[in-house]
Amino acid sequence: MLWQIGIDEAGYGPNLGPFVMTLVACRVPEEGDLWQLLKAGVRRADDEPDHRLVIADSKQVYAPARGLTNLERTVLAASPWLADQVESTLHASIGCLLDCLSCEPLAVLRQEAWFVGDTPLPTAAALEELNAARMLWRASCAAANVTWGFCRSAIVPAPRFNDLVDQWHSKAAVLSVAVTDLMRRCLEATPPEPMRFVIDKHGGRNTYSALLQHAFQEGIVFAESEGRERSVYRVEGLDRPVQIVVTPKADVEHFTVALASMVSKYVRELLMLEFNRFWRLHLPDLEPTAGYPGDSQRYFDAIRPIMQKLGIADRLVWRCR
After folding, report:
1. 15: pLDDT confidence band, cut at 50, 70 and 90?
2. 111 FRET partner, CA 20 to 30 A, in 23, 38, 52, 235?
């Protein structure tokens, strides 16, 4: 058996709201295309629309004009982390989801003034549709002997984001800390079977040996190849073979990376619902924001008087880069 593992993020570019990175681990009989193995229950974004779940880069699945329905349907139907809490009625909330999914205890996120965690799930998808989608997902995975294991999200709100940038003098430190933490946790939580990590590449960096060594401190990371299109590493000295591939557009070409992209985007969108709800309690006419440059300054200027009144410092809300 082999672990196929994907890592991707959402919210690296905004000035407002949290950064989210997710790792999704899948156990398969052998190396193969999961879109093909699970084709009875899943499809790509550009396939003919039907009842199957869409697994694709989150930008292909979600846009504000299209709403959260397709993104939510896939993430909640494919979520082993909600299996105990979510059955026929899906009486759940974002707090319930993050209790299962977040690397950090929920109490850490509750330190944010805007986070309550009571947003009910689902927010857009119909319960009946979700239950049917969940049964389809489980049947497809069982037929292909595919099982889903470790899945976690690193959630980095603005204060932590700014602390990491200040400490390392680089925004990329946020990516590095999140990815190494997720990989280390995955290694500890999975049985000693071969593992293949695929990570969506960011920026122009081609060398990752030093960064990856922090995730695999009990082993030694060796570079097999490093380049603009693909950087490949192996880890020696562990109780299992480990390979890491860093490549651009991994969320388009690799199933687990696409699913990680979708989970990250869904979690961030839920958190932005809570973010906007908090500030609109004080400013009911305030138009919601996604937090990205171009709109974030308008929103921040509007809420700053409320922040001053509540004693909330700028760096606790506005990300410095």
Report:
1. very high
2. 23
Which structural domains are found in the chain, ordered by start?
A: 2-272 (3.30.420.10)
Amino acid (one-letter) located at 268: R
Q: Where are the beta strands (DSSP E) in 58-97?
A: 92-93
Contact 269, 72 (CB under 8 A): no
- Residue 12 CA neighbour count, 13 Å, CB half: 18
d(CA 158, CA 265): 17
Percentages (nearest 5) of helix, strand, coil residues in the chain? 40, 20, 40
Half-sphere exposure of 137 (CA within 13 A, CB side): 20
Chain position carrying tokens 């989970």 = 263
Number of C-beta neighbours around residue 71 at 10 A: 22
DSSP helix/strand/coil, 22:
strand
**Residue 81: which pLDDT band, with cuts at 50, 70 and 90?**
low
Q: What is the pLDDT of residues 277-289, one digit of tens each?
A: 999 999 999 999 9
260/83 Cα distance (integer angstroms):
18
- Contact between residue 42 and residue 291 where contact means Cβ atoms under 8 Å apart: no
